[in-house]
Amino acid sequence: MSLNQLSSGDLIADRRAEYAHMLADSGDHADAADLMTQALELVPDWAAGWFRLADYEEKSGRKEAAIAALRKVLTLNPDDIFGAGLKLALLGGAETPDQPSSLYVAQLFDDYADRFDKALVEKLDYTVPEKLAALITGHTGEARFANVIDLGCGTGLFGERIRDKANRLEGFDLSANMLAKAEGKGCYDRLAQADLSMPPETSGLFSDMPDHRADLVSAADVLMYLGNLDSVFVIASQLLGSSGLFAFSVEDADVEGDFILRPSLRYAHSETYIQSLCKRFGLDILAISKTAIRNDGGKPVFGILFLTRRSA
After folding, report:
1. Which of residues 95, 127, 156 is at a domain's end?
2. What is the pLDDT of residue 91?
3. Strands (E) located in the chain
4. Helix H or strand E segment including 308
5. Which pLDDT does position 112 carry in this prediction?
6. Domain span at 46
């Protein structure tokens, strides 16, 4: 969803917003903010316009004005489809939220679905699916899995790499458009929507499946869109059968504490936080791999891959 495509419903306001966008594209963010403010005087309840104003104010160096605009966005749109809460936290205007808005994450990936594979694999040198699959194979050899559940399956990049080892492969994702892309690849036996930030009973995962039914649960490049990971570990614990494996990746926070929010609007988690979660949820850590997982702005982003097993 491009903010520049969201109409205010007022022709004059839209025209001013278009000119503001042109000024911002030319690098004149201060004048863009001023013109956007004029547009919002005509349509003060235009949440997308306030979010755009916040961006211009931030880039022009007017931090407090950007914070005020983001707070206005959240007042107008408390469900936070724009991710204003994350931006507000990065600017120091609020505490870092434990989770982003599910509507924001769903919209983000619905918009990204058509170019997801090409952008990540060809442009960002994205390697989590291959490396996580290799970590699993390195410890299981030629063994097959009766049932694999791929949490946050996206377009199926990890599913493609584990399919040959799975008798049955199920994928779950918050984004309907990502699920449609995964379905087109034909490697999943079942696909359905689910929200990993929700408690198990409302996540959408357990509506028609019994507990303890997977011998491998995966979450490849998913947890960076969540801060507090309790809900994911509860879900994985309920899905795993006896001695089942849980394989997943995080961005490496490389700091003390549990997690941080980065300017990319993704979360990074510390190794000690993940270790504490594994201990609390009865998971033995079989392997840890620290590695570059993608590029961002021409620089490598480092992550940690974990392979864990449900304790006896």
Report:
1. 95
2. 97
3. 148-151, 169-173, 190-193, 214-219, 240-251, 259-261, 267-269, 283-296, 299-310
4. strand 299-310
5. 82
6. 3-95
